[in-house]
Design a protein that fits this description.
The complex is a heterodimer. Chain A is mainly α. Chain A contains 12 helices and 3 strands, in the order αααβαβααβαααααα. At the A-B interface, α1, α2 and α9 of A face α3, α4, α5, α6 and α7 of B.
């Protein structure tokens, strides 16, 4: 009996024991506590998983939309000047030389009828059209990359006068269609950005509140630890690790589903997907999944830290 | 932690008081929970705080463990000014004060043994697992719970939880130990054993302050008795006296 009351504690701190005890308290203790309190954490885990999953899918969609906007802008800066089937070579060369000499032009590339057919065969809907005709319906063209999209109209007008140019459909320039695309893309970009911001705010708020509720249910634990004199890191640490674990599990599930959705989209609709979501590749899907996982860990830890901090303030 | 020693009573008396409450007053709105209470406890001293419900016993203990700050007055614990302590320094103070709570306050996710060992490693992070385990087990055996070390708090009765709480408080050999109704959930025999244990703790130099309603035990222990009524210290009866307890007589 007397032993426990007067046996002196070691004065020297053994570093190995300090490390071991710290690790056990922070990680093993947190893991065990996480398992024991899974019932309390489940709502937070569920809502986090769902929100992270939605964030992943919305993020991938936004990326695809951004890629689509970029490809549309790049497309709009290319003017296709269609050549007559019976155009003479010297007329074509003269037209090409005059276009290349123009300061508004970056580059001019010749596309033959057969190349035009090959390109058409890779575009959704056009392979049927290409196969339906007896002969190749696609004209040869000079593809002019212009410095500024605003110059496309002027160049189209200048090219139209050449004898090498098809009189029926001289160029790809369509002022009203171009305007519509630009307007649509601007609206989608603004609406998408606003939606993403709002969605991010909702995701963070819901996650913090769910974790706060889970920690609120264990406020006794926090206060007991403080009352027995546990240092602040010892009180916060396990909750931080538990939050990170909750976030990791939610993030991992959401990341896997995001990755699976992205890869499935790529695998099942290669050609259409490449057109609708240019730039969306396997690598991008993995990066998106990684971001979702990281967001889960950061969100879980931060929410736990904020919640346990507010609990600690009250003791 | 402020390390300035209280220059008052302890110096005047020539004794280093471990607990020194100087003119402490605690108000909650219009209610006065403690009214100008002064009290000093020397190393190795065991004292009881008695009084009717609402007399301010628990408030006094909370001041010592810095769960509350006095509205006015000072509280010095082992030379440190608890009343002026910054929040980040409170854990250091609490590691010097062992507390036995009326409602036990055991960590539900830890077993009885782990609860006791946790207190050891809170105070001494460098203690090995084996040593913490052995000391915790010794403490549990001392309170008669050697065979229940693996049980979680919700698997123990109220009395058993109380004993785990006592083991947790004494195992770190704190300079000050306070107990709020430590025998409230115990049968007479166990209560007496626990009192003997706390007496032993005080013999090793710990200042022990026990708030209780159990006047039988107070009388049998023949120790110093501080009586609080309506927040005021109405009597401070030294050890060895067997006079009537003021508030019980009224």
């Amino acid at each position: 009996m007397g032993g426990i009351l007067n046996a002196p504690f070691p004065r020297r701190r053994r570093l190995r024991n300090v490390f071991r005890n710290t690790f056990r308290h922070l990680f093993r203790g947190a893991a065990r506590s996480w398992r024991r309190n899974l019932g309390t954490t489940a709502p937070a885990l569920g809502s986090m998983t769902l929100l992270l999953l939605l964030s992943g899918v919305v993020g991938l969609s936004a990326f695809a939309l951004r890629g689509l906007a970029a490809s549309q802008a790049a497309e709009a800066a290319v003017l296709h000047v269609y050549l007559r089937d019976d155009a003479r070579q010297q007329d074509t060369d003269a037209l090409r030389a005059s276009l290349e000499a123009d300061r508004r032009v970056l580059a001019v590339r010749y596309t033959s009828k057969s190349d035009a057919l090959k390109h058409a065969q890779h575009r959704p809907g056009l392979p049927d059209l290409a196969g339906a005709a007896d002969e190749n319906p696609f004209p040869a063209s000079l593809d002019v990359r212009v410095r500024s999209v605003q110059d496309v109209g002027g160049l189209a007008a200048a090219a139209t006068g050449s004898p090498a140019v098809d009189p029926v459909l001289p160029t790809s320039y369509n002022p009203s269609a171009y305007q519509r695309i630009q307007t649509a893309l601007t609206v989608v970009a603004v609406a998408g950005g606003a939606f993403l911001l709002l969605f991010g705010f909702v995701a963070i708020a819901v996650t913090i509140n769910s974790i706060k509720a889970a920690i609120q249910a264990r406020r006794n634990e926090v206060s007991i630890m403080q009352l027995v004199g546990a240092p602040r890191w010892m009180v916060r640490g396990p909750f931080l690790v538990e939050g990170a674990m909750t976030g990791s599990v939610a993030g991992l599930v959401a990341a896997l589903v995001t990755l699976a959705a992205g890869l499935a989209g790529l695998a099942f609709g290669t050609s259409a997907f490449a057109q609708l979501a240019p730039g969306l590749t396997v690598g991008v899907c993995f990066i998106a999944a990684g971001i979702v996982l990281l967001a889960g860990v950061v969100l879980g830890s931060a929410a736990s830290l904020v919640s346990v901090h507010s609990q600690m303030e009250s003791v | 932690m402020q390390s300035t020693l209280c220059p008052r009573l302890s110096i005047l008396l020539g004794l280093p008081a471990l607990v020194e409450v100087v003119g402490a007053t605690c108000r909650f709105g219009d209610i006065v929970a403690l009214d100008d209470v002064s009290l000093a406890l020397q190393p190795g001293e065991l004292a009881f705080v008695v009084g009717p419900s609402g007399a301010g016993k628990t408030t006094l203990l909370k001041l010592i463990n810095r769960e509350m700050r006095p509205t006015s007055g000072e509280v010095w614990i082992d030379g440190h000014a608890a009343h002026a302590l910054r929040p980040r320094r409170i854990p250091t103070l609490r590691r010097r004060v062992g507390v036995v709570y009326q409602d036990y306050k055991l960590l539900p996710r830890l077993t009885a043994l782990e609860n006791v060992a946790f207190a050891i490693q809170v105070c001494y992070l460098g203690v090995s697992d084996e040593e913490a385990h052995d000391r915790a087990l010794d403490a549990l055996e001392a309170v008669g719970l050697g065979g229940r070390d693996g049980a979680f708090p919700d698997e123990l009765s109220g009395g058993q939880q109380q004993r785990v709480a006592i083991a947790r408080a004494v195992v770190v050999q704190p300079p000050v130990l306070i107990a709020d109704e430590p025998t409230g959930n115990l049968d007479l025999e166990t209560a007496w054993q626990v009192m003997k244990l706390l007496e032993q703790v005080s013999r090793f130099g710990t200042a022990v302050l026990i708030a209780t309603h159990n006047l039988d035990i107070v009388r049998r222990m023949q120790r110093r008795v501080v009586t609080l009524v309506d927040g005021r210290l109405v009597r401070d009866q030294p050890a060895g006296r067997t006079g009537r307890l003021a508030w019980a007589a009224s």
